[in-house]
Hints:
With 143 residues, this protein is α+β, with helices and mostly antiparallel strands. Helices cover 46% and strands 20% of the residues.
Amino acid sequence: xxxxxxxxxxxxxxxxxxxxxxxxxxxxxxxxxxxxxxxxxxxxxxxxxxxxxxxxxxxxxxxxxxxxxxxxxxxxxxxxxxxxxxxxxxxxxxxxxxxxxxxxxxxxxxxxxxxxxxxxxxxxxxxxxxxxxxxxxxxxxxx
Length: 143
């Protein structure tokens, strides 16, 4: 039984697709696409040298073009803060007098928090808007 070259290329493409799925490394997908291009070249009747050149050219072109685009999208994506990091930089309303010694309460993101002023000499009266600088345990540090 003689198997055509294009079938071997498709077997190679599937073989390269398996690590893509298992490792989530997109480079394997690019090599797999190159193998499919090699299969098309073989199906059109070109020789082994042309098939390998097409495989290499398509794989390298995809690596050169797609990887930088994917990296830009990955790096340019805004990072979403969660937990207490999401509260830093937000504004709150003073409910009870806040000073630098740790007394006072604020309403932050719909919840009541204990608060203290960043500067020990600073005080904030009820109704004032403050900015949350940091979260220290269960206490918001405000200014």
